[in-house]
Amino acid sequence: MFLSKIILRGDDRMIEQRGYEKDASRRLFQHAKKFIPGGVTANIKHFAPYPIFMKKGYGSKLIDVDGVEYIDYSLCYGALMTGHGHPRIKEATLKQLDDSGTVIFGTPHELEVKMAEKLIALYPSMDQVRFTNSGTEAVLLAIRLAVAYTNKPKIGKFEGHYHGGLNQLLVSINPTQRDAGRPDQPEAVFESDGIVQSERENTIVLPFNDLEATEKLLRKHQDELAAVILEPVQGGFIPAEPQFIHGLRDLTNELGIVLIFDEVKTGFRVALGGAQSVYDVDPDITTLGKVLGGGFPIGAVGGHEEIMMQSAATAKSDVFSVGSDSHKTKNIVFHSGTYNGHPLVLAAGLETIRLLEDENELKSTFEKTMLLRKELEKLYETYHIKMQTIGMGSIFNLVFTDQTIRHYRDMWQADTSFRQAIDIELLKLGIYLKPLNRYSTSTAHTVEDIEKTVSLHERAIHRVLQQSEPLYAVK
């Protein structure tokens, strides 16, 4: 027998009733709201009934301000591929600080060259590299380069894909079924206020994993589209189908559209060379972030030489040289940032890559991730609950449906209320993950962590079924 979905979908009252008791976090959150809009400095950090404030982290564990320990499957939304406080990364960062005698130079330095060389060796699609301070900044530069290269104004992005908080791309990430439009021709649903109409007109929304419908839209708008950007693994857990991603590469080549892979989530998490190495597809531009910084803020843009060289600085292209002959800046793609290529960040990032270049580290992490996925699927099947894990490498998600998940719209049939209830119980039991988010594992996670995680899932199932019994109907 199978259980139906919880009736009170998304009901905040129900979340409050199920909510955990974290006294110190609750007090800190109420205090923070007096000084910080909404109590958090990034919207993604908020969840009901209130976010949990953390105090310490080590290996695969977090400890909150109430002193409660968790097995961490958020890992700073995937950034910490080697877990919290890896001794080699700490040592590399401190050594860089000690050797240089300063935090930052504000000038070129050798680590910029070393990291660029390393990325080009790992990502054959890259001829040259520029550094930024976040994945969002990397996408901003990638879009600017593509527009300059093609002299076309519009960008194609896929429904359900997230590319940071840029106005032009903050669209159709999580549209409602009512607003989303036709499956083969999605509506552009903007996800924030404050975006002017002129910016709204330059984004074409495309249907992921539907090559036929995507081709029609690309051919219709080929004279306007500078680039198509996508996450090769949507949201970090829905992989592109091989025939789709190869077909998209062929199409963009034919139509003169720059193809951008946003590998901020997937870079180093599905393979050292990112998802593009798994699919054997070379995009024109790649954006990276998260894992690349070893826990510090970073972004990178790499691509074909003729595209990247548009940002090459010259003596006569310095917008900051007051009174100089800088009229040639109109022919240069402007890119700058005081903290780009920060030496401490690159030291941490290079040591992270060295750790992951040990084949046994990645292989073992992927094997433990798959073990966790299989054991969780087996557990939920025991309770006749329709659940599947979807993902690639060291990232995956739990989706409560037995239907095939190929794109964003398929997620509408998943039982998110049951998933949210499970996640809240897990927070009480010592598993940290923002409710409804994807799981990320690290080299620090152990088989013991996995066994405990599965055990705590079983306890969470019992609690949710007991508390929700009146809301369920038996088929």
TrEMBL record:
One of its GO terms (molecular function) is pyridoxal phosphate binding. Keywords: Pyridoxal phosphate. It comes from the Bacteria. Its cofactor is pyridoxal 5'-phosphate. It holds the Pfam family Aminotran_3. Belongs to the class-III pyridoxal-phosphate-dependent aminotransferase family. This is Glutamate-1-semialdehyde 2,1-aminomutase.
